């Protein structure tokens, strides 16, 4: 057998084994997630003020010092990861971060279920062609277009229209905040203390699913018109809705916490995840918000027909 054929067969075999292993791991994660979802249905919820476990940054709302990024620091299109770096929960310079360390940090910080905390960093590692178990990355590495970063984001300008994904688009974030139509979050639902700036910045409101659907519809329509390289696959539409849905699930729609996250990429003193389930927000439970949100976005059916015709 020639060397060329040996190379071809080796690559085919490696591809098959890799696909089978990836499928097995993904299936295992989904079954694990189902188990956590069922456990959460019957287990008592966590009391307010106890969501972040003892010994972890943010316990009882006491987050490490917020330090904005300096020259040479790496940041990305994900405000949550940037906030974790700004508070020193992951390396402050945003560089040489182990994928497994991100998994370990996301759960206590935001109370996502362990399944989500494994699935997303593992997906990022796959995009970058690196090992989830042993690999590292800089935050800016994940901004490869149509990986984690995508067009029509509510907090970033499209990659084709911007030189950097590391900073928020202030006009887009302001538009998102302005659309909030829900009532203020009552003190009984969050340990975040009222601030003098809340009224000044008109933050005594909350985001609703209808608000997010409305602003997502507008953002996608405008992006199609302004961006000649606009692309948003079905996967990235759902992924974009997932990002938006965290504002309702993890942040409870609280405009004060959302403003701090999206504008400054920091966590307010007293903030803790609004998810009170002991095993955290499972992917199955999360989809109960993500899918209704995505299905409420207007204009997608019309765009689908245009693409077909």
Automatic annotation (TrEMBL):
Transmembrane segments: 12-39
Cofactor(s) in the UniProt record: heme b
Listed EC numbers: 1.11.2.1
Residue ranges of every copy of the Heme haloperoxidase family profile domain listed in the record: 62-288
One Pfam short name: Peroxidase_2
InterPro entries given in the database record: Chloroperoxidase, Chloroperoxidase-like_sf
Sorted UniProt keywords: Heme, Iron, Membrane, Metal-binding, Oxidoreductase, Peroxidase, Transmembrane, Transmembrane helix
Sample GO molecular function, one term: metal ion binding
Family: Belongs to the chloroperoxidase family.
Protein name, per record: Heme-thiolate peroxidase
Organism of provenance: Hericium alpestre
């Amino acid at each position: 057998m020639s060397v060329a054929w040996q190379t071809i067969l080796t690559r085919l075999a490696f591809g098959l084994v890799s696909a089978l292993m990836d499928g097995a791991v993904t299936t295992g994660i989904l079954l694990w997630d189902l188990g956590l979802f069922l456990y959460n249905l019957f287990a008592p919820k966590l009391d307010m003020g106890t969501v972040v476990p003892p010994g972890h940054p943010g316990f009882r709302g006491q987050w490490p010092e917020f330090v904005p990024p300096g020259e040479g620091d790496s940041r990305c299109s994900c405000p949550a990861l940037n906030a974790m770096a700004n508070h020193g929960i992951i390396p402050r310079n945003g560089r040489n971060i182990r994928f497994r360390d991100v998994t370990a940090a996301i759960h206590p910080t935001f109370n996502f279920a362990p399944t989500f905390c494994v699935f997303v960093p593992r997906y990022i590692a796959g995009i970058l062609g690196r090992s989830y178990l042993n690999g590292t990355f800089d935050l800016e590495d994940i901004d490869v277009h149509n990986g984690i970063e995508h067009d029509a984001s509510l907090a970033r300008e499209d990659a084709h229209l911007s030189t950097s994904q590391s900073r928020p688009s202030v006009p887009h974030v302001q538009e998102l905040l302005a659309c909030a139509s829900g009532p203020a979050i009552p003190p009984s639902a969050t340990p975040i203390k009222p601030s003098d700036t809340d009224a000044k910045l008109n933050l005594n409101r909350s985001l609703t699913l209808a608000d997010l659907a409305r602003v997502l519809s507008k953002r996608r329509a405008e992006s199609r018109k302004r961006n000649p390289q606009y692309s948003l696959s079905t996967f990235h539409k759902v992924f974009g809705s997932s990002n938006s849905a965290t504002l309702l699930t993890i942040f409870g729609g609280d405009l004060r916490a959302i403003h701090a996250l999206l504008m400054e990429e920091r966590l307010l003193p007293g903030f803790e995840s609004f998810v009170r389930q002991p095993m955290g927000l499972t992917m199955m439970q999360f989809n109960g918000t993500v899918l209704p949100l995505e299905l409420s976005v207007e204009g997608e059916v019309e765009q689908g027909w245009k693409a077909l015709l």
